[in-house]
Amino acid sequence: MENNTIIKTDNLVKRFPIGGGHFTALEDINLELNTGEFAGLVGPSGSGKTTMLNILGSLDNPSEGDANVLNTSIKSIGARRASQLRKKHIGFIFQTFNLMPVYTVFENVEFPLLLLKMSAAERRKAVLDALEWVGLTDKIKSKPKQLSGGESQRVAIARAMVKKPELVLADEPTANLDAENSHNILRTMEKLNEELNTTFLFATHDDKVIKYLKRIIYLEDGKVVRDEQVKK
Amino acid sequence: MLRFFIKGLIRDRQRSLLPIIVVTLGVMLTVLGHTWITGILGDVIDFNARFSTGHVKVMTSEYFENIDQMPNDLALLESEAFIAELQEKYPDMTWVERISFGGLIDAPDEEGETRAQGPAAGMALDLLSPESKEAERLNLQNILLKGTLPTSPDDVILSDEFASRLEVEPDDQVTLITTTMYGAMSITNFTVCGTIKFGVGALDRGGIIADISGIRYAMDMEDATGEILGYFPGGEYPDEKAITLAENFNNEYADEEDRFSPVMVPLRNQNSLTGMIDIIGYMSGIIISIFMIAMAIVLWNAGLVGGLRRYGEMGLRLAIGEQKGHIYRSLLSESVVIGIVGSVIGTLIGLLFASLMSKGIDFSDMMEGSTMMMPGVYRTQITPESYYIGFFPGVLATVFGTALAGIGIYRRQTANLFKELQA
Q: B62-98 burial, b for 16+ CB within 10 Å, e for fewer?
């Protein structure tokens, strides 16, 4: 693995048992992503996008082959190391935001830092920075129910970015947003990618997202059918 | 981190309010139940100790064998010297003489002929010595309904119910027909000086109380007594001390060959009180167990419902990098906080109700037919244990209920997080 390679998969296969047999969700995937890429796994439902994100996010193990994420083999990773990897190095953004409703914006963004046992002062600075990146410093005391969909997803981005992870995995991040909010969100992520050199990997079939991607990896029936760099 | 979760706990009333209400109710009932049962059983024991058994009782071994028959022919002799010996040997204790006796009370008409008669169960005790605390021990002044307490050996107090049945009033003459300790018939006149309500069915039906000197005269029991009752200082019955004392005494005095040798019997071995004393010992455990199981079941279910509601939060926390064990422990920490808060509130409310009920509820009307030596007024009794007993079921049940409900976290498939969180 080269120094700036953040993700590398070798003949990655994922099968799920179904009835007496099994269903192959991913088949012989060989991919390499470098630090700072803004890439997307694109394909129709059932093409294996989410399964791929699960494995790269150390939430699942491959059936065959391996995936190396930040120099860590996912195949041989244990639950403890997997949670360490997610806690320190990977940020997640979900379609449904998943903010904790009883906590304020500030507290939602602060939560990942509590797991890293940072001091209160360090946490405060990091949270305010993250909220500044997403343009929500005026909402720090708001509760999630007081936010619009776009604002909620921006909080989710701030939560994913607050620990400055090397890799952000975003599964259909704009699926619940209108066009304007989608563009705002994507512009924010694009800016963070450029400013912090964070690697973003999306799973999407949304044209609004695809327009922003600098690399598109097309998946169909669990196979990579096309992998292209987009010239902007 | 704990502060973060406590903040969430306070803000999310669905997460905290129901469990706190359940714990509060359970703890309140535990405290109330404990004080109530401690009060009732404590009163029964105290009542028996004052009226009948003492904390320990000394009598002849044969008297003890036949105690139900009140066999004063088997009484202790030279009792004055024996009491002095006991007082010297056990100076911290109070020793008093009692004679329990039975007989007929005859109420004569104006011409001295029998007008009414009734069987009587009597107790003779020292009511005339200035240093005697017997009237106080039996609370006689407060339960006196008419007349006065005995002021001479010829005076007798009847239970008010008995006096009404015989149609006698204070200052009327009655005759006690009984036997002397030597088996001869004894007919002695007494003056009714007052009537009392014992509040105990068994005593109210035919109870009489007289000074021991008058009864000694009537039953020819000079320098003899049926029973010597011993009381430890402080008034509380110390079971283990009483057992040890009785064992030591019996090792020294009891003689299997001599039916008149003195034996000492602790309260627990009299009036079938063994079970009751043991129940008091087990009661804390029984009450704690009952409420802990009941609360744990409710809280387990509440935890399951809460867990389902917080499924998204748990999933998110797993995705962010929190370990399953850490989430589980955070849920247990939350439950400890809920348990402590509920226990504090429940204990305060329980103690409040217990103190309101410490004056007691009068059940004496319902116990008119009872033959047991039980007080008619039941009250709660707050003991040092009452202040912390509720914390056991309160905290343990919440932790146990949450522990069961939280097992689901370990069944959570991390691999499904993306799907679950987008559902």
A: bbbeebeebbbbbbbeebeebbeebeeebeebbbbbb
Residue ranges and CATH numbers for the domains of chain A are 37-61+76-229 (3.40.50.300)
CB-CB neighbors (< 8 A) of B315 in chain A = 98
Q: How far is A231 from chain B (nearest CA, A)?
A: 31
pLDDT band at B371 (very low <50, low <70, confident <90, very high): very low
How many angstroms away from the CA of A100 is the closest CA of chain B?
Answer: 6
Measured between beta carbons, the chain B residues lying within 8 angstroms of A103 are 7-8, 11
Q: Give the nearest chain A residue to B419 (CA atoms).
A: A50
> Taking CA atoms, what residue in B is nearest to A55?
B415
Residues B42-83 have pLDDT tens digits of 887 888 888 889 999 999 999 998 988 889 999 999 999 999
Q: What pLDDT is stored for residue B103 in this prediction?
A: 93
Task: Say how far apart CA B15 and CA B341 lie, in whole Å.
Answer: 14
Q: pLDDT-based confidence at B13, cuts 50/70/90?
A: confident
Give this complex's ipTM.
0.86
- Sign, CA torsion B159/B143/B201/B41: negative
Q: Is B200 helix (H, G, I), strand (E, B) or coil?
A: coil
Q: Is A221 on the interface with B (CB under 8 A)?
A: no
CB atoms within 10 A of CB B6: 15
Q: Give helix A120-133 / helix A179-196 axis angle, nearest 10°.
A: 120
Which of these ranges, A31-35, A161-165, B253-257, has the smallest mean pLDDT?
B253-257
pLDDT tens-digit readout, B23-48: 999 899 989 988 888 888 788 788 88
pTM over 0.80: no
Give the domain ranges of chain B: 2-47+275-421, 56-231
Coil, helix or strand for A7? strand
Q: CB of B34 within 8 A of CB of B284? A: yes
Q: B286: how many CB neighbours lie within 10 A of its CB?
A: 13
Which residue of B12, B319, B324 is in closest CB contact with A102? Answer: B12
